């Protein structure tokens, strides 16, 4: 069995960094471990700086004409391979397409968009979702056969994080990383009130939203330190996270799993977390007792959670240990690869 692996990011760059031990394998969604299940992998080469149309044409040419000796496309996203999916739906492309679906499938307001969506999903053979909630929401759209839906336990590359945590350091204070849909205003107000030390690592912009401009409008007390690194590289950031006692993940409300990357990192590193309560995230943070969740935008709830972590260091450490066990048993790259392989092999 041979799979063609497609990613919207630069796979060759990630693989090169991985060889040096400087990039977590889970950003390739288990693809590096498919060989353990008898699946050879062809690595896609993306035109990451090209226009979206040019990328789609490049991807279509590579997958339909240049590379022919494979059985299935395994993709981290449908973005960039839409023409191929429609060809599959029309019976003009014969290889299976298996991909990760990051948001719930929804009902479009327009009849024609809804019809087109049903045709589109006919071209996808199997879909992985990050949480049961995403699957349940997608079933309600009635756009495709729910038997195509699979729950994937996307989780961290434990080997890489073990190398990071092996570098012993005195853990102190709180840390915030991540770039998408972060509610920095709520987070800053809460930490201004508590006086707890917080290090924030953030990109200057995410899409069209400027975090740097936002911080120019926020009052920051001396306990809050903000950095805007030129590039937010996961390996370098994980070293900074390892210096903290607790991870904070303060997000805006969305319909998908915003914050999940940071959640699985905290689990892998054995760190407790305070996280906005996103029902789309698969980890039951409160139920598993590996952290505390708070409602969106609730500054007072954030203050209480921060204070609790400060005043109960032993329980906070126990939360971190429980989180690590959860990473070892459920949310890691090895389990993710096994689940993907089972679907690819049709078992």
Strand order of the largest sheet: 2-1-3-4-5-6
Summarize the amount of helix as a percent range.
25-40%
Low-confidence stretches: none
For the sheet with most strands, the description reads: 6 strands, parallel
Q: Tell me, briefly, the overall form.
A: globular
Oligomer: single chain
Mean of all residue-level pLDDT scores: 95
Beginning-to-end CA distance, first to last residue:
13 Å
Our count of helices gives 13
> Based on helices, strands and strand pairing, what is the structural class?
alpha/beta
Give the SSE order as H and E letters: EHEHEHEHEHEHEHEEEHEHEHEEHHH
Q: What percentage of amino acids are in beta strands?
A: 5-15%
Number of strands: 14
| Radius of gyration (Å) | 21 Å
Description:
By secondary structure, the chain is α/β, with parallel strands linked by helices. Helix content is 39%, strand content 15%. It contains 13 helices and 14 strands. Strand 4, helix 4 and strand 5 (126-129) form a beta-alpha-beta unit. It starts with a strand and ends with a helix. The mean pLDDT is 95.
């Amino acid at each position: 069995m041979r799979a063609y692996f497609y990613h919207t990011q630069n796979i060759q760059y990630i693989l090169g960094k991985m060889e040096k031990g400087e990039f977590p394998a889970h950003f390739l969604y288990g693809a590096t471990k498919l060989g353990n299940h008898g699946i050879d992998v062809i690595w896609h080469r993306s035109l990451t700086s090209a226009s979206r149309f040019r990328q789609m044409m490049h991807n279509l040419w590579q997958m339909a004409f240049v590379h022919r000796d494979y059985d299935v496309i395994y993709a981290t996203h449908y973005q960039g391979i839409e023409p191929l999916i429609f060809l599959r739906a029309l019976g003009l492309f014969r290889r299976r397409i298996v991909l990760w679906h990051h948001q719930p499938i929804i009902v479009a307001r327009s009849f024609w968009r809804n019809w087109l969506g049903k045709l589109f999903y006919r071209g996808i053979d199997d879909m992985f979702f990050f949480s049961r909630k995403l699957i349940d929401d997608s079933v309600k759209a009635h756009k495709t056969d729910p038997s195509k839906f699979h729950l994937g336990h996307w989780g961290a590359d434990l080997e890489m994080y073990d190398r990071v945590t092996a570098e012993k350091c005195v853990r102190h204070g709180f840390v915030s990383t991540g770039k998408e849909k972060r509610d920095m205003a709520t987070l800053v107000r809460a930490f201004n009130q508590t006086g707890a030390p917080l290090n924030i690592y953030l990109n200057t912009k995410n899409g069209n939203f400027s975090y740097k401009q936002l911080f120019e409008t926020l009052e920051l007390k001396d306990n809050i330190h903000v950095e805007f690194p030129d590039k937010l590289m996961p390996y370098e950031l994980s070293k900074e996270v390892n210096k903290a006692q607790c991870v904070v993940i303060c997000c805006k409300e969305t319909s998908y799993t915003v914050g999940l990357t940071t959640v699985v990192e905290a689990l892998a590193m054995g760190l407790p977390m305070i996280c906005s309560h996103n029902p789309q995230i698969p980890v039951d943070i409160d139920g598993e007792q590996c952290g505390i969740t708070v409602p969106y935008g609730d500054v007072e709830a954030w203050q209480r959670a921060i204070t609790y972590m400060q005043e109960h260091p032993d329980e906070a450490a126990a939360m971190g240990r429980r989180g690590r066990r959860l990473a070892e048993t459920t949310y890691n790259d090895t389990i993710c690869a096994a689940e993907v392989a089972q679907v690819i092999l049709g078992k």
